[in-house]
Amino acid sequence: MEQSSLDGVKAICAKETWTLEDYSRLVSELSGTSDAAGKFKAALAEIEGENPEPKGSVAVKIGIARYTVCRFPEALEALCQGTDNKDRHYFQGLTHLQLRQYEKAIAEFERARERGMDSPAPGFRIIESLALAGKFDEAAKALGKLKSPAADGAEALYLTGLIAELRGFGEEAVESYEKAREKDPNHAAATFRLAYYHDLHGGEEEAMELYLDCVAHPPVHANALLNMAVLHEDAGEYDKACQCLRRILSTNPTHPRARLFLQDAEASKSMFYDEDQARRLAKRNAVLDIPVTDFELSVRARNCLKKMNIRTLGDLVKTTETELLAYKNFGETSLKEIKDMLTAKGLRLGQALEDGSELADLNAPAPASVSNDGVLATQLEHIEFSIRARRALEGLKMATLGELISKTEAELLACKNFGQTSLNEVRQRLAEYGLSLREAN
Length: 441
What we know:
Oligomer: single chain
Strand content: under 5%
Shape: elongated
């Protein structure tokens, strides 16, 4: 069986160009080989070595091969140089779909149809692209026009579930995905979406089992491996997380998210999270937020603090004795009142300005106001984050962009399971709205 599959792979690789049928045969043959990713990587390297500047039919073949190992930008480069036929445009559509360029994907699937692809595949992918682009009504209308047997198969059930899920009808989506898997247990898309749904809703065990089904057969399902890595890392299984990420990088060494996640997972092996220190800092923060008006102060001291815009104990520990005494009508008597008040709370003037102080980054000023209150009110649940970043933000009990930008980078990184990769992702998402995290003093 193994040798037969290897011979089948070699026969397909020897062809000058590939079609959708060749791709399907290739996936089937690779499923019967051990170390399929490694063997196909070697075959692809050989093909690319023989064709450094692919054109025509060979470019289509190399583009499809690169798509198979999730090298999507490179796949597009090759496909754009390929013969103008239905297979080229169909795989260009698939690649744009993976890159979330939905309008371009739809246009390519339409071109594949125009050039003679009469299978249901382009129609299915157009519906999928419409759904992922948020055009639910158009997607549902196109799905309703499908005729038997296409309308009764696993692919149609998967698309029914996808539209339901994206519209917010989770239970209906799960039911459709499960029916799709009953029709076709190896349906990768239905399996992944079902796993992802369980993952987002706290069903880690069910999600992991389904993700394992996703990656049990080629082609490489990079997103499933990425999400498995996150689950392993959340469980403290850093070696398993690294193994998943290296599996992606074995076929696509430049995969940006896999590289970043691997750095994060590797760093987590030696990361020490001091829960006692975190509790101490949280307690200290609560003290710093106490308003000075909660204490019995003389009218003179109270008025001076108000005019100096000193509202909390946190403001006071960022102020020196010299600064207070330099203010008009603020004398030694008022200074003693303030020092006694701080001493009772274990604090002192100027403490937050001292090097190495635990207070150095705490109670920093609020970010500059943003004129668009509607943007700040945007719910985080409506913004696309990776599972890792979303869980970390949920752990911080934040719901809106306004709440997110009130945090500093240091505060986010101090949270358990929130690493540099998640921080980079948060920065990127905020930048899309013209926002940024609060800067610490």
